[in-house]
Amino acid sequence: MPSEARRVAVRAGLVRGWRETRYSLTDPTDLVWFFAFPVIYAVVLLFMRGSTVPGTDFELGAMVLPSIVGMTIAFGGLAGPANQIAMDREDGTLLRAKATPDGMIGYLVGKTVMFSLGTLVSLMVLAIPAVTVADELRIDGRTALLLPVLFVAGMVATVPMSVALGSLFRSSAQSMLIFLASMVLISVSGIFYPITALPTWLQWVGQAFPFYWLGLGTRSAMLPSDLVTAEIGDSWRTLEMFGVLGIWAVVGFAIAPAVLRRMARRQSGSVVAAARERVMAQGY
């Protein structure tokens, strides 16, 4: 049974995550992060109107949209938290969390809530072009059940791992490496074209990361069943999908608090002050 201190930390994390989300939605920089990519995807999908998948009469935008939904979930969980953790180390947020019983657990829960809600906002923007291809998509009870489950599974599978990776960087600028790595992984994850078109070894690389599995899951939820022939093994592989995402979630929540505590032990008031001075010097 979890200790009372841990339960308090989790509740505090939930409240913190909600408050940080509300603040982010009033911050111009965060708003750009939430809306920039969804707006770009929306414009691209709108320009696809009238185009069809070669050899079929199926809308090209309808084919791509589900994969973009899955990619947005994975990207929101992997790219944002790593940058945030580096910033929180520089401004002393992690140092304050360290001083609280089970503070790192609460911190991790808060970041998961914050980036989950932020990603949800981004997904809502994608609903605009989705209306134009809705008649091509499969929208039924399975869709209504699977998409929310995929969203939650995607967030818990990616945010803790991103926090753990972000804690390894010494500055927020270095955390952009995860952004670049995500771009590379997207290209081999079957988001914009079938993964079966790639060499076998690249297919295995893509299947090791959440981008592929979340894209597969959203395609299985939103596309007609006969399009499964474009997938590996002519199957949506739902059990395998949740299995891989589950592994990422378990590993992430297991290592992230430990890595955060280890990083926080190296923090002190003087270290934070020095980091602030470096950031201010760079700004000027």
Automatic annotation (TrEMBL):
The keyword Transmembrane applies. It is found in: Membrane. The chain crosses the membrane at residues 31-48, 60-79, 113-133, 145-169, 175-194, 241-260. It holds the Pfam family ABC2_membrane_3. Signal peptide: none annotated. PROSITE patterns: ABC_TM2 (PS51012). One of its GO terms (biological process) is response to antibiotic. It comes from the Bacteria. Residues 29-263 form the ABC transmembrane type-2 domain. One of its GO terms (cellular component) is ATP-binding cassette (ABC) transporter complex. It is a multi-pass membrane protein. The keyword Hydrolase does not apply. Keywords: Antibiotic resistance, Membrane, Transmembrane, Transmembrane helix. One of its GO terms (molecular function) is ABC-type transporter activity. Its main location: membrane. This is ABC transporter. It comes from Nocardioides silvaticus.
